[in-house]
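Example 3.2
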Amino acid sequence: MSDPETLAVYDAQADDYVAMMKDYAAKDPLIAEFIAACPEGGYVLDLGSGPGGYAVLMAEAGLSVDALDASAEMIARIDSPGVSPRVGTFDDVTAIAVYDGIWASFSLLHAPRADMPRHLAALHRAARPGAPFFLGLKRGTGGDRDALGRYYEYYEREDLDPLLEAAGFTPGRHWTGVATGMAGHEQGWIVIEAHA
């Protein structure tokens, strides 16, 4: 993610995001599903980690976590044993077959739609065979900015399965729901569990 306006919002609201995500992550049952799908003591990637709410929970469960986010302000707020924070974009995922799991919770939705196949292919290369990949996105069609100025691409399940399969992933379980984010309005979401 390299949209300057989106990054500026996250940098400016980093402290508010820390408070929101700590509570949200702790109550999210899907992080437990991801941790259970990873091997004990595994090496995982939290892609678009923000201030590390999920990464900390992964580390507390015994996983070794790379936390990657394009917002330097978000990364600066991560200070937890077992988490290695790094400022970088989706294009900085260049590892080959190193991760035992990849968590991309509402991060890739900031990438232009045309770039999604490239990013998914890079994530597949970075994952070890069979590694779980949890992908969370907002539901809908097209792309737009929210009330805060962040850019989003919206997806439905029928859009995602072909994209995942083309990148080499095998889509599996999925969950849907509705949540209210920082912009203050309700939005449908989908999380898909796929495997490399």
